[in-house]
Amino acid sequence: MSVFVLENYMEEFLKDITNWWWWVSVVLLSFLMNLLASYSKPVLDKMFSRIGTTSTKRSDNVSKYVKYYGRSEIKNLELKQDINFQFILVFIFMTISFVSLGFSIQYLNRYDLTSKFIFYCFISFTLLSIVVALVFMKRCNELIKARAIIIRKEKSHL
């Protein structure tokens, strides 16, 4: 960004803070943020208290996968296909997130940010794609651990 663009934003900001609607919107937004924080605090506390129990939950998921996929050779092949499918989904969603990030950077470079809606849509879509990819990556990791356990059990029986 050039200095000229920053000066324009500064002048625009100084004009905005002299208007009464800007102050009203700041007060309303701070009130809404305070209200949102008070309601989200118990949810966040509960979510962060579960972090210690996620390792046991993950091992329960792995043991569940071992029981389901370890029954027969056909289920073992199904496990391999499921792992490959999860890898493909991770790749697709990470590609979507990088493309969306590229579009948002292009939009940022090409256009004036007076209409920020499209830029925020691209950024939101990028973050959503990354979160979905991480969820699939977590499941893929659990499936790989289950496959390793199944292979270890098969080798011990031989």
What is this structure, in a nutshell?
The chain is an all-alpha fold. The chain has 5 helices and no strands.
Question: What topology does this entry show?
Answer:
Blueprint: H1 3-17, H2 20-49, H3 54-69, H4 73-110, H5 117-157
Helix pairs in contact: 3-5, 4-5
Textual characterization of the structure:
By secondary structure, this protein is mainly alpha-helical. 89% of the residues lie in helices and 0% in strands. It has 5 helices and no strands. The N and C termini lie far apart (66 Å).
Would you tell me the overall average pLDDT? 78
Fraction in helix? over 70%
Order of secondary-structure elements: HHHHH
The share of residues in extended strands comes to under 5%
- Structural class by helix and strand composition: mainly alpha
Distance N to C terminus: 66 Å
Number of domains: 1
Number of helices: 5
Number of strands: 0
Taking the sheet with the most strands, its summary is: none
Give the CA-based shape. elongated
Low-pLDDT stretches are none
Determine Rg (CA atoms, Å).
25 Å
